[in-house]
Amino acid sequence: MAWMYWTVPTAIFFGGLFATLIAMGIWDRQSPSLPRKGFLPMPTTRGDRLFLSIITAIGIALLWLAILGNTALPGIAILATLAIAAIAWKG
Fold this sequence. Notes:
Number of domains: 2
Helix content: 55-70%
Number of helices: 3
Largest sheet: none
Number of strands: 0
Strand content: under 5%
Distance between the termini: 43 Å
Radius of gyration: 15 Å
Shape: flat
Structural class: mainly alpha
Order of helices and strands: HHH
Oligomer: single chain
């Protein structure tokens, strides 16, 4: 892993990501998720919504930084809003 420049924020990010995935796995084992239709136009489970939120966040963050440069805070606000809508919306 010498190719990657590890910093404290990077380690916190990946630690949080792995902790979220482990917590979702435990939660799904204890209480299996039923597909439901909410904000997204298709029935999804908790894990599906989490995965789609993470992938969407990565895509929007990369586009935001490519187009607008170093001003990441407004992009983070947009990402958080979309993730909350995808995960919590009970259509």
